[in-house]
Please model this.
Amino acid sequence: MSETKTETEAKRRSKFLVVVDDTNEVRVAVRYATRRARNVRSGVVMLRVIEPVDFQQWAGVAEIMRSEAHEAAEDLLQKLAEQVNQESGLLPELVIREGVAKTEILKLVDEDPNIRMLVLAAAPNAEGPGPLVSALAGQMAGELKFPITVIPGGLSDEQIDRLT
Model:
């Protein structure tokens, strides 16, 4: 069975990657990526990385924590996906990985050549942009084959809309 032209185009279209965490500024990154993707007819991939739990002595506790982390990740991604769909009509790809965030991000972009931009939002405080932004925009920037866009995390919806 051959693919339709629409299916083939969907597989080849560019995608904006947003790394979803528990910070308030992730909402800004999601909105920016969604608006840009809609405007340039691209897709959105939202990645949630669950850091490994080290409870080797209590395997049952570790499994419960792992299960709860997956459930929380799914809930968060679903809420953000609803927001993306309501704002743009797009259905984002949702990805949950376990491991170290930097490693899992690099693996995902290696596996999906259609990811053409990483969108992050910097923490809007004096303590710095946040560990993920620091790592990706600093140490790892040279390892990626596409641009990283860092959005100020304190932008309002109206400010984001004007930028996109």
Q: What stands out?
A: The longest helix spans residues 59-88. The first strand starts at residue 15 and ends at 20. Confidence is low (pLDDT under 50) at residues 1-10.
